[in-house]
Specification:
The protein is of the alpha/beta class and 404 residues long. It has 2 domains: 6-204, P-loop containing nucleotide triphosphate hydrolases (Rossmann fold), CATH 3.40.50.300; 214-399, Phosphoglycerate mutase-like (Rossmann fold, 3-Layer(aba) Sandwich). The chain contains 14 helices and 12 strands. It has helices spanning 18-31, 41-49, 63-85, 100-112, 127-136, 149-166, 195-206, 223-226, 238-254, 267-273, 299-305, 307-315, 328-344, 355-366, and strands spanning 6-11, 36-40, 90-94, 116-123, 177-181, 186-190, 214-218, 260-263, 280-282, 349-353, 382-389, 392-399. The strands form 2 sheets. Strands 2-3-1-4-5-6 form a 6-stranded mixed beta sheet, with helices on both faces. Strands 9-8-10-7-11-12 form a 6-stranded mixed beta sheet, with helices on both faces. A hairpin with a 2-residue loop joins strand 11 and strand 12 (392-399). Helix 7 packs across helix 13. The longest helix has 23 residues, at 63-85. Bound molecules: 6-O-phosphono-beta-D-fructofuranose (F6P). 6-O-phosphono-beta-D-fructofuranose binds at residues 230-231, 288-289, 291, 354-356, 374.
Length: 404
């Protein structure tokens, strides 16, 4: 059975983190293999009308502004439904949708297209959070390019004021909704049914804004790496042991506070983390892709002994499942609880894993489509530092020389 098509309609006053949430939802869904896309009405407005509308454009009493905004909203809805009629699965309609009549318009269009709809409303009255959002993201928007920051902030506050006059929170009789209060401190879910919406509730329960680093690394070189054999449970080579020591020198100097340390349950990952001065947790979900009947073989042995398997994997590395083993899609599914835990944490974290596992986690943070994930470049003896920002992640890589 194919997935039901779904529209997530963002709701909330400006500067409540809707666009951040919309992108995060899209990234999570795409990573899990569901075609997801954000339709941001602000981008349609800027494309049609140019970026520099003053706050008065958003005044509900400004008939001209209202008409222009309705037109761009219509255009975004049209595009969104057309995309869903094709191969799209989850569309995220990112606009304020603060007035009930705006939401009724999207609702009725989705109902005619036989598409499910869930409102995702962000409610926040904490002035300091709103001010941070105005200064941290809104002033960088193309809407305020070249405008002096104080004037831009005043204009944006006036824009918020216009929306406040017409804001009606989503009511129970409007259908399914998820309300995030104070950026996820509290969550209210109403009439949430079906597989994907339920999964989104648990994802949203865990998300909060964190800027703490995530460090990702493969284990140090193993005896199997030296012999070009895959899988298994080998020890580190001498060079691999040198990487473990280099990591234990480098990271304590780099980390501003002690990170959580998560390793797989395999010897090469545990040995890589063992010199670090922090508590370590071994997690089976971080074990390397299981190569089934191919465990312990080299790629050339697989090519010679099982050419059909070798070619099938080369054709579709994402979906190919080793006989009695796993595919990348399987690995991504089993890593989902790790993503939830990574989203929930309030500390930096170091994950010591393996090629396929680190590729999959890295693909989530850097928003790579699933098809690209199995081909990402994640070399040995390289520590990847990811620093989450409002709209994604900044990346640095440190190639560490083994310390003998
Ligand atoms: O070669 C090291 C390794 O971790 C193997 O154990 C694993 O099967 C492989 O990398 C995964 O990489 P790929 O998906 O490119 O074969």
């Amino acid at each position: 059975m194919r997935d039901r098509k779904l529209v997530l309609v963002m709701v909330g006053l400006p500067a409540r983190g809707k666009t951040h949430l919309a992108r995060k939802l899209a990234r999570y869904l795409s990573w899990l293999g569901h075609r997801a896309r954000v339709f941001n009405v602000g981008s349609y407005r800027r494309a049609r009308l140019g970026p520099a509308q003053p706050a008065s454009f958003f005044d509900p009493d400004n008939a001209e502004g209202r008409a222009a905004r309705s037109l761009v909203a219509e255009e975004a809805i049209e595009d969104m439904l057309e995309w869903l009629a094709g191969d799209g699965v989850v569309a995220i309609y990112d606009a304020t949708n603060t007035a009930r009549r705006q939401r009724e318009l999207v609702s009725s269009r989705c109902a005619s297209a036989d598409v499910d709809l869930v409102f995702v409303e962000s409610i926040c009255d904490d002035r300091s959070v709103i001010e941070d959002n105005i200064r941290g993201t809104k002033l960088m928007s193309p809407d305020y390019e070249g405008v002096e920051p104080e004037a831009a902030a005043d204009d944006f506050r006036a824009r918020i004021g216009h929306y406040e006059r017409i804001y009606e929170p989503v009511a129970d009789d409007e259908g399914s909704y998820i309300k995030l209060i104070d950026l996820g401190d509290k969550l209210v879910a109403h009439r949430i049914e079906g597989y994907l919406p339920s999964r989104l509730v648990s994802f949203l329960l865990s998300t909060h804004v964190t800027h703490c680093a995530v460090w990702l690394t493969r284990h140090g070189e193993s005896l199997y790496n030296l012999a070009s054999r895959i899988g298994g449970n080998p020890d580190l080579s001498t060079r691999g042991e040198g990487y473990a020591r280099a990591l234990a020198k480098f990271l304590p100097e780099r980390a501003e506070q002690p990170p959580l340390v998560w390793t797989s349950t395999l010897k090469r990952a545990i040995q890589t983390a063992r010199h670090l001065p922090w508590e370590q947790h071994q997690i089976r979900a971080l074990d390397e892709i299981h190569a089934g009947v191919c465990e312990g073989l080299t790629y050339s042995q697989i090519e010679r002994q099982m050419p059909d398997e070798f070619n099938a994997r080369a054709r579709d590395k994402l979906r190919y499942r080793y006989p009695r083993g796993e595919s990348y899609e399987d690995v991504i599914q089993r890593l989902e609880p790790i993503i939830i835990a990574l989203e929930r944490r309030k500390q930096p974290v170091l994950v010591v894993g393996h090629n396929a596992v680190i590729r999959s986690l890295y693909a989530y943070f850097m928003d790579w489509p699933p098809e690209v994930c199995p081909h990402l470049d994640v070399p040995l003896h390289t520590l990847i530092e990811l620093s989450p920002t409002a709209y994604g992640c900044e990346e640095r890589r440190f190639a560490l020389e083994p310390d003998f």
